[in-house]
Amino acid sequence: MDYSNETKCLHAGYHPGNGEPRQIPIYQSTTWVYESSEEMGMLFDLEKSGYFYTRLQNPTNDFVAAKLTEMEGGVAGMLTSSGQAANFFALFNICEAGDHFIASSSIYGGTYNLFGTTMKKMGIEVTFIDQNISEEEMDSYFRPNTKALFGETITNPTVNVLDFEKFARVAHKHGVPFIVDNTFATPINCQPIKYGADIVTHSTTKYMDGHGIHVGGAIIDSGNFDWMAHKDKYPGLCAPDESYHGIVYAERFGKGAYITKATTQLMRDLGSIQAPQNAFYLNAGLESLGARMARHCSNAKAVAEFLKTRPEVEWVNYSDLEDDASHELQQKYLKKGSCGVLAFGLKGGREAAIKFMDSLKFVTIVTHVADAKTCLLHPASHTHRQMSEEQLREAGVNPDLIRLSVGLEDPEDILNDLKQALEQL
Ligand code: PLP
User: Fold this and answer.
1) Which of 39, 55, 335, 406 is most buried, judging by how many CB atoms fall within 10 Å of its CB?
2) How many whole angstroms separate alpha carbon 405 and alpha carbon 391?
3) Residue 388 and residue 238: Cα distance in Å, rounded?
4) 3-state secondary structure of 290
């Protein structure tokens, strides 16, 4: 029987048997014991499956990853230490020095920096594109060494909705996987694999945790991309891995190849595992994800509608507003709602933004989004401050943009706090 994601977030991934703990246990152990050296050798050769060292895999993490995999409709998944690690691993698993990939320029500032600065130092080049350009223009950015196309379901901080079908069509025409960061929507509101995404990433730090308790990430593979059909392009998956006894991941593990390689090779060498304790917190958050996302969305819609009526407000971006530029795409891909994050600008620009933020009472300024408490941030002064004016414009971030993450409080209280701060302008 196929349950909805509102049910899967409670029940998927872990099925305790008779007399077993109802909650996923925390396996707080670095290592596992084996009685024979032969058995241990078989684990290292990937000839037998089993746990041996938490830097690679841990049962707590695997139960939670299995839940996320079911919720996204994928075939295999893994947890990482952060959303940054998830996006890095998702690309580094198929790109090496000399390779190139294409990403929407409207993405989280930290991801932009990772792709444009740090991965560049590793010899991997990115081309950032405006996600609204035509398919023909997108085609013109592909090169023989292009290995992936990347975007965010709902862009951070500009909260625009990605045109999945356009991105999937273009990626597949050029024989590369389409990777989507689904952090803001969560699988409750959108399952990118249904619309052609091959690989989905998350910062589990955000709505999935929902209470600002842990930093973590996840990667889920749809199993749909045929690596062997493009084997010259993906030698890491389709040619022998000398560091793993000559294994050819795509031959040996089929649809599980991508996650197996990311676990056995990247986790082994780069060690960005999510702490099992954090995976436990993540799972506790996931249990209420369905209920929380509905409330985040209804509260955010009330706030967006309120801001629209205020004379101090210059503009509001929230895709659930009928006149929003992303409304049509939201109706197509995020039928249940977008998320609790919205963006707006004040008439007085940057100065007014600062005065407004400093006048708020319980709505706080924090470097975070997507948790239970309403908070806000001014990206040009905070998260995106490493970007030049030109990069900010390229990412569609106006200097006056305020990113407001609407929490789970009584909507009347949120509106009253915003109102009293607006009245001080
Ligand atoms: N992706 C998105 C859309 C984000 O908003 C963030 C963080 O804000 C990240 C990735 C990075 O995640 P983390 O902070 O867990 O490393």
Assistant:
1) 406
2) 23
3) 40
4) helix
Say whether pLDDT at 333 is over 90. yes
What CATH number should be reported for the domain holding residue 80?
A: 3.40.640.10
- Do 209 and 9 meet the contact criterion of CB atoms below 8 Å apart? no
CA atoms within 13 A on the CB side of 58: 27
pLDDT at 389 over 80: no
Do residue 188 and residue 61 come from a single domain? yes
pLDDT for 77 equals 98
Task: Report how far ligand 1's centroid is from the alpha carbon of 102 (Å).
Answer: 19
Cα-to-centroid distance, 72 and ligand 1 (Å): 18
Per residue in 178-212, pLDDT (tens digit) is 999 999 999 999 999 999 999 999 999 999 999 99
Which of 81, 82, 84, 184 should be mutated for ligand 1, with most atoms under 8 A from CB? 84
Distance 43 CA to ligand 1 centre (A): 33
Backbone dihedral angles phi then psi of residue 275, each to the nearest 5 degrees: -60, 135
Amino acid occupying residue 286:
L
Nearest-atom number in ligand 1 for the CA of 85 is 16
338 lies in which domain range? 290-422
Q: Are residues 214 and 97 in the same domain?
A: yes
